[in-house]
Every structure is written in C-alpha cells, then in structure tokens.
Amino acid sequence: MYGEARAFLRDELGLDPGPVLKALHTAILADDPALVAAAPQAQRVVVGALKESVVRLDAADAPPTNLRSQPTALLGRAQELVEVCGLLRDQRSRLVTLTGPGGTGKTRLGFEVAAEVLKDFPGGVYSVELAAVGDPSDVMATVAQTLGVQEGAGRTVEQALRELLRDRRLLLVLDNFEQVIAAAPDVAALLADCQSLSVLVTSRQPLRQHGEQEYPVPPLAVPDQRSLALASTATLAQFEALALFVERAQAVKPSFKITDRNVRAVAEICIRLDGLPLAIELAAVRIKVLPPQAMLERVGQRLRLLTAGARGVTARQQTLRGTIDWSYDLLTASERLLFARLAVFVDGCTLEAAEAVCDADNHIGLEVLDGLASLVDKNLVRQDESPQGEPRFTMLETVREYAEERLVSDPAHAVVRDRHADFFSDLAVKATAFLQSMEGRGWRDKLEVEHGNLRSATEWLLETQRIGPAMDIAIGAWRVWIQRGRLREGAALIERVLAHSDGSEDPKRARALMCLGELYRFQGDFERARATKEAGLPILRQAVPVLAAATLCDLGHIAERQDRLDDARALHQEALDIQIAVGMKGGIIHATTGLARLAVGTGELVRARSLYRQVLEGGRELGDAEFMNEALLGLAEIARREGDRDRSRRLYDEALVLGTEMWDVSMVFDVLAGMASLAVACGQPRTAAHLLGAVDAIAVTTGLVPYFTDQREQCREEVRAVLVAAEYADLLAKGRAMTYDDAVAYALTW
Q1: How far apart are the C-alpha atoms of 90 and 110, rounded to whole Å?
Q2: How is 120-134 classified by DSSP, letter by letter?
Q3: In a 10 Å sphere around its CB, with 0-12 CB exposed, 13-18 middle and 19+ buried, how is residue 556 labelled?
Q4: Where are the domains of the chain?
Q5: Is residue 460 within a helix (H) or strand (E), and if so which, with residue range?
Q6: How confident is the model over 323-358, as pLDDT tens digits?
Q7: Cβ-based neighbour number of residue 259 at 10 Å
Q8: Around 341, how many Cα atoms within 13 Å sit in the side-chain half-sphere?
Q9: Sign of torsion, CA 431 432 438 439?
Q10: Are β-strands 197-203 and 349-350 bridged in parallel, bridged antiparallel, or unpaired?
Q11: 78-216 has which CATH code?
C-alpha cells in the first residue's frame, strides 16, 4: 500500500512522502498498538500526512532541500567554491569543516557550496542552524527536527535519524558549530553509521574527528602596498574586497561609485579591515553619512564604527564587536588572559617572544604553547611560518583591537608592555653585529618581520621615558630600514626618539644622529643629511673614532652629490687615515669604497676599478655582503662606461643575484637602474623603459634615489628621445606594474 502510494505520488503528482507519512508507515510495519485506537481516523491521518508533510519535487526532479535563496550574490570566492564542491562531490572526505574567524564568510560560502552541489545529493541537502543551540546534547535532536524525524514505538529520535539516513546520499550543513563543539563525536558516529551521508560544517574551530577535512576560509583578497601605491583604479576595483564594498555601498547609496579620487581610500579601508566580509559590509553601509576618506580616518576605531548590521540577522552579525564577543565568550579564563596579552604584539610574534612576554607574572594558568594552540584552533590567532621556518602567531587587526581593549583592563598591563619593549630592544642590539655579513640575512629578516613590534616597543619606551633602550632599537634597525625600503618610516621614528632625548653629548645620541643622517641621504635629502651627521660628529670623534671615520665617509658621499668634490676627497681620505690608524679592516674597506665611488664620478675609471677590486676582495674576505655589492655595482658601472657591455652585464647580474639573496631592496634598486643604462647602450630602449618603470615603482614605495643619479637621468632622456611618447609611457607603465620579483626576473633575462 505504502509502496503503491509512493509510486503514485512520484509518477503522477511529482511528490515524495514526507517524514510524517514515513513515520506512519514504520509504525504500521511495527504493529504499533497506538494505531488501533486511532483506526477510525486513519484515513484523515494519511490524507493529512500527504498534504502537509510531502516534499515537492521540481520539474527536473531536483533533490529535496530546505536551503533558502540568498538575498545577494556571492562575490569572489570562486576558487574556494570550486575546491569545497570538489571535496564533497568526490567524497574525498564526508566531513568537511569550513573554519575561520568570525565575519570571514564561512556561513555564506557554506550555503553557496550547498546550493551548488544539490544535484549531487539525491537524498537532499539540509541546513541545520545551531547558533541558538546551547547544549551539545541537543545537536542530534535539532538535526532530527530539521529533517522531520520523530521518535516512534521502540526507537529513539537518534535511532530514527540513523534509519532515515543510513542508505541516503544526503548532505547536512551544520552551521555555527563552535559553541556545541562537544557534539563533534556525535557527528562522527552518525557518519560512521550512515555511509552515504556527508556533512559540511561551518565553525570557528575544527571538530578534530577522524576523517575530517578542514578548509580554512581566508579573508577576501585586498591590494598589497605596492598595488595601493601604483595600480590603476580599474585594477584596484577588481579586488574581491573592494567589489564587495562597492556592491554593499550601492545598496544604500545607488549613486556611489569608485573613482580615481576615492579608490585608494576604499582600498585602504578594506586592507585595515583585514578583508573580512562582515567588517566590509558593516563599513559600506556607513557610506550614506561618511565618504571614503572620512571613513578611513575613523576605521582605526573599528569596533565603534562597525555597528550597523542589517535587521533580521543575528545579534552577533549586526556589529563587529558582537561577532568577536561570540568567540571570546567560548574561551576559558586562562585563554582569555593569554588572548588579551597577545594584543601587545604588532604583526604577530614567535613562540619565544610570546613565552617571554605574555606570562610575565606567571598568572595565566596554562602553558603558553598550549594556549596558543587552542587559540589557533578557535581562529582567534593564526599560525604562519617566519622566513627562518619557525612558527609565528598573528591576529587579524580587527581581532587585535578587541584583544587590546581587554589588555588595558589587565592589572599586569604595564608589566606586559615593559617585557615586550625589553624583548625587542634586546633583539635590535643583538642584531647590530650581524647585519652587514653574508650570515646576517637571518637577522635582517628578523628585524624586518618584527618591524611593527620594534615600532610599538619604541613608542612605549618613549611614553615611559626610557630613551636609552629606544635609541638601541633605532641604532640596531636603521640599516634594515634602508635595505628593505622603510626610509621615511624609519627616519620618522628616529626623529621621535631624538626629540625625547635631552640633547646631551651622549655617544648613543650621536650614533642615532649618524643613523638618521643615512636615512636622509638615501632619500636624496643631502643638506639635511649633512647637518644631522655633522651635529653628532664632534662627540663621535672623542668617544668612538671608528664611527667618526664612518661618518666622515658618509659626509664624503654627500659632498660628492652636492658637487663639492674637493671636500669629498678630503673627507674620504681623513676617514681612511683614521681607520688605518686604528687597524679596522672593515672601516678601511668602507673608506676605500668612498674613494672608489668618487673616482667614478670624476672619470678616473682606472683608479676606480683598482679601488673597487680592493673593496670586492676585502668584502669577500670579511663575508660582508654590502661591500661586495658596492664593488660589483661600481665595477659594472665602470665596464658600462668603458663600453665593455658583456662584462658589465655579468657584473650587474652577479650584483642583482646577491642583492636579491640578501633581500636588499636598496641594492636591487641601484642594479635595475644601472641595467637600464646598459640596455640603452646595447640599443634596447624598450627594455630600458621597462626597467625604468620598475625603478620608478621602487622609488615611489621606498623613497630611494639612484646611486649614480646623473647617469640615470641621462638614460631616461635617451630613452625618451628614441621612443614615441605613447610607447614610452606604455612601457614605463608596464614596468611600474611589475611586482618586485617580476622585475628581478625580467632584469635577469632581458
């Protein structure tokens, strides 16, 4: 009878029996006594079941589902959609968990995936919302309720659920699983009993069950700093995060559009919001009252700004704070304390740093490593890998802002900040002795990665009037700021440190002046560089003659760039005499470099080549990468000026490879500029234009000026004279659009 009814419903009406009718059929087969008393009403029961509990099939015989259509299209996520759908379709895992911090769009992606794979699951696709479920023991009952499964004679709801799903190719979407994570074994057991079942979970932490395939949902793509500075409006507008901002902004203000005037402000907003879809959506609706530039000025206070979520969504989705509250409330007391203290780190930390700083008072109540592992699982902290291959723990800035609020209320707040400042001041001091050596790449990488922490530590040291350690950071990091193209930011930081000092004749202050002068010099601000270095020189002459000689050499470079050639020669010679007197081999090579560069500028190429060879030999003997690169660049320039193009090219290639290995942006910059001049000499103006574009891009993002400025400007004029204006502009633009790595690769293969 039941089979005939099911066949009739399918063939004639396009219907399938629903859970009530199925339950009735099971009760009849079991000879349930309760049915006897209800016999007179049997017909009404059956008819009611047919009318109210069937699942209608569409014309294409689509599987049943309770998925709701989404009010907006999914922007971006094309790759994620393909990958997750692939996992479910080929059953590489029957338990797939979309993980990520709150606001990253796990639920939205999950629903889109479910809709996409609907036809792959003939038994149906059902979404089970768990946000309102507080007790993990209620999860299976909630799943059963969603599917219309009820307990019957001699069987529990769980047993009935397993019977329904045992041979059914069905997908369950379990949304917001993090607060019922203790129910994870129940999900695993259900999958073990029902071999045709698949489960797609969205959760802020993985279930940690056998066979689980975790899929971290990343934030939306945002521009990097190079793109932000150089890319066109059209290019920037194509980034997923900006596209989402525009769509949501136009929903509340149809006239809004991306323009050349506002595109970088919108891009910067998306960057500062970490590419989080929820944060971007909450920001976009503010466009009715805050134009992009005004919004950008307030985006540092994300938790106060982002509070205008759509009506009808859950409370935790209406504000950014509510979203993070949801995760924070699931932490233990010890995890909350560690979470708050991690906010002291800017751009993340190593395990060593976290252990040294976060448990300063031994009151956290858990091992820092264990706590970090738990916070990573809960997607409040991310684990990456540093250039040295050690684990690095970071927070999204939106999450860090929330944690910082919690840190302020920690009684040990000042102690934590002091420990942080001491740790990074010590790191800068340790690094100083290694930064010029071939083996110093690791230390340069460390200081670059820790730039945010070094800056934050300096600010705290100044706030607490600990000027000496703040100067230690400046003196330790200035060379890396030049090599990695942080000239403006580094100069501003040292200026602040010096402004807090008392102006006394302190050798450490004089060293800071020397470092600041170098940052000015590499930006081409020669007059200010000269005045700054001369201010510290008298103190260094008395206290540290070797550093005085180094300063004299730097002043010689400045004099040369200001066409004071006699002064330049005298300064370099005095520096060399001092270094010879004290027997400092590295100092002798440094002074020789100054004389060699001056000889190139005055056209004494034979003498320059001899001096540069001394520098190259000495650099190799000492393992000093800076001296070696200086020599290679100088010798390549000499060969170019003498017309030996093949030798020039080999030397430039060697310098470029070494500069790239050392991640020395300043050296790579000069090599690319020199190669552009060589390309002109080789009759390849188009190649030169490409290289000049790459040079321009680095100059814009770093503030660097070329090594041999006069020759580089001559190169630019020669290229402009040969090429048609439109072609020159196009090639220059293409060069500017190249990434740093692409520019290096291009230079090595032209």
Answers
A1: 17
A2: G-TTEEEEEE-TT--
A3: buried
A4: 2-56, 78-216, 225-321, 345-421, 427-642, 647-749
A5: helix 451-463
A6: 888 889 999 999 999 999 999 999 999 999 999 999
A7: 11
A8: 32
A9: negative
A10: unpaired
A11: 3.40.50.300
Task: For residue 418, give the 3-state DSSP assignment.
Answer: helix
Dig out the tokens for 380 from the structure.
Answer: 């409040």
Give me the residues paired with residue 213 across strands. Answer: 96
Signed CA dihedral, 470, 473, 475, 480: sign only: negative
The pairing of beta strand 95-99 with beta strand 212-216: parallel
Three-state SS string over 267-294 comes to HHHHHHCCCCHHHHHHHHHHHHCCCHHH
Read off the pLDDT of residues 562-597 as tens digits, 9 standing for 90 and up.
999 999 999 999 999 999 999 999 999 999 999 999
What DSSP state is assigned to residue 438? Answer: G
For every residue of 27-69, DSSP letters joined together read HHHTT-THHHHTGGGHHHHHHHHHHHS-EE--TT-PPPB-PPP
User: What sign for the dihedral angle of Cα 271, 384, 485, 715?
Assistant: negative
CATH superfamily for 427-642 is Tetratricopeptide repeat domain (1.25.40.10)
Just give the CATH number of 345-421: 1.10.10
- Closest C-alpha among 73, 316, 120, 111 to residue 217: 111
Q: How confident is the model at residue 435 (pLDDT cuts 50, 70, 90)?
A: confident
Residue 95, beta-bridge partner list: 199, 212
